[in-house]
């Protein structure tokens, strides 16, 4: 009996220690701690911090200066995530920031191009429309789709003729995104 | 061949058959628009819902199915009228006042899912005059409904809609706060 009690006690102690060590019970990092993590040399720490900032502090602008500086980071996942988070948070961006994001539109990796397009549609950047239009002729349907969606937000009625050609695109999803974009642009005042 | 060997061969053949069948299905021609429109009159609701989905995916800019879809807005089966509204919204259909009223009736449903479908349909339509009917949903007890109301107001509203959304910027649910923030951003950028 004594042995059983001892084993149960050790078992419960182990469970308690495990619970304490698990990330669920770990305290959430503060905004300041997350901003400090943006200086980490490890890309995964930086991107995780950006994700947390986006989710937990969506209306705070405190991280913006640091996020903007990461737009030109040499690590691709870091600059892509920085662009996405700035877009999602609708940050006020200047010409230098916009230039850094539009540079991603020329990346060889289509994922980076798509992240830049997604970022731009969260920003006040109608001046980038001429940079986006050539992407409607991309060989990657998903790039074309993101270009349509971004043009729907940033473009105006003059953008419609560039989209109309896609209404006969063989890919039904491209056709639908072009149609949605034209509808949105036609309804702009 | 041993019993074990026979079973292995059987399993490989079955796997191959499944693979070939899935490739054939993936490569199959999309159903014809005529067939899908005909399916809208089928008594089985799953057939109707499937036809509506296929019409949205394969014929997004064809107006041929619109009259038949509009009729389904008053169908007794909730799943059908909900899907009909969603597809008309997705296709950006031009709706007459009677059809619009049918879509708005979804907003009066007791099922929040039906209300959400009504809100999602409206944001695909040219109906900025319905903003006053949508604003009360910002106070709905169901947070998903509040989020959809924010998104729809982001599309249909104008700068005057912003004050109704601003209290939600302090909502305890981060997702509601985010949708309100996105809507305010969109409306502020409308000229």
Secondary-structure blueprint:
The complex is a heterodimer of chains A (189) and B (191).
Chain A: H1 2-21, H2 31-37, H3 43-56, H4 64-69, H5 76-88, H6 95-104, H7 110-120, H8 129-132, H9 141-154, H10 160-164, H11 172-186
Helix pairs in contact in A: 2-3, 3-5, 5-7, 6-7, 7-9, 9-11
Chain B: H1 3-27, H2 33-39, H3 45-58, H4 66-71, H5 78-90, H6 97-105, H7 112-122, H8 131-134, H9 143-156, H10 162-165, H11 174-188
Helix pairs in contact in B: 2-3, 3-5, 5-7, 7-9, 9-11
Task: Describe the structure in your own words.
The complex is a heterodimer of chains A (189) and B (191). By secondary structure, chain A is mostly helical. Chain A has 2 domains: 31-124, Leucine-rich Repeat Variant (Alpha Horseshoe); 126-189, Leucine-rich Repeat Variant. Chain A contains 11 helices and no strands. In chain A, helix 2 packs antiparallel against helix 3 and helix 7 (110-120) packs parallel to helix 9. Chain B is mainly α and 191 residues long. Chain B has 2 domains: 30-126, Leucine-rich Repeat Variant, CATH 1.25.10.10; 128-191, Leucine-rich Repeat Variant, CATH 1.25.10.10. Chain B is 64% helix and 0% strand. Chain B has helices at 3-27, 33-39, 45-58, 66-71, 78-90, 97-105, 112-122, 131-134, 143-156, 162-165, 174-188. In chain B, helix 2 (33-39) packs antiparallel against helix 3 (45-58), helix 3 (45-58) runs parallel beside helix 5 (78-90) and helix 7 (112-122) packs parallel to helix 9 (143-156). The radius of gyration of chain B is 22 Å and the shape is extended. The termini of chain B are far apart. The interface between A and B is medium-sized, with 18 and 19 residues.
């Amino acid at each position: 009996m004594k042995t059983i009690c001892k084993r149960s006690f050790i078992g419960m102690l182990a469970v308690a220690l495990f619970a304490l060590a698990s990330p669920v019970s770990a305290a959430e990092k503060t905004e300041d701690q997350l901003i400090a993590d943006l200086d980490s040399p490890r890309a995964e720490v930086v991107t995780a911090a950006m994700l947390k900032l986006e989710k937990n502090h969506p209306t705070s602008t405190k991280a913006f200066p640091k996020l903007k500086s990461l737009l030109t980071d040499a690590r691709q996942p870091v600059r892509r995530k920085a662009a996405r988070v700035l877009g999602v948070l609708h940050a006020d961006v200047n010409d230098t920031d916009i230039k850094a994001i539009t540079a991603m539109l020329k990346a060889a990796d289509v994922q980076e191009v798509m992240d830049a397009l997604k970022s731009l549609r969260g920003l006040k950047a109608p001046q980038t429309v001429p940079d986006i239009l050539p992407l409607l002729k991309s060989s990657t349907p998903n790039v074309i789709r993101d270009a349509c969606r971004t043009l729907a937000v940033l473009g105006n009625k003059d953008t419609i003729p560039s989209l109309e050609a896609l209404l006969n695109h063989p890919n039904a999803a491209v056709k639908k995104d072009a149609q949605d974009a034209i509808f949105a642009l036609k309804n702009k005042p | 061949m041993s019993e074990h060997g026979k079973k292995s061969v059987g399993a490989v053949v079955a796997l191959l058959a499944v693979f070939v069948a899935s490739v054939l299905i993936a490569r199959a021609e999309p159903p014809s628009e005529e067939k899908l429109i005909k399916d809208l009159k089928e008594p089985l609701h799953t057939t109707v819902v499937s036809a509506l989905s296929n019409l949205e995916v394969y014929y997004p800019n064809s107006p041929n199915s619109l009259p038949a879809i509009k009729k389904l807005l008053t169908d007794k089966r909730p799943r059908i009228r909900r899907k009909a509204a969603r597809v008309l919204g997705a296709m950006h259909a031009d709706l007459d006042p009677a059809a619009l009223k049918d879509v708005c009736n979804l907003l009066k449903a007791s099922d929040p899912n039906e209300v959400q479908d009504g809100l999602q349909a409206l944001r695909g339509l040219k109906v900025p005059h319905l903003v006053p009917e949508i604003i009360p949903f910002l106070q709905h007890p169901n947070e998903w409904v509040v989020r959809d109301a924010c998104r729809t107001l982001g599309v249909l509203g104008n700068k005057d809609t912003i004050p109704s959304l601003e209290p939600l910027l302090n909502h305890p649910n981060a997702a509601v706060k985010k949708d309100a923030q996105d809507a305010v951003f969109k409306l502020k950028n409308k000229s």
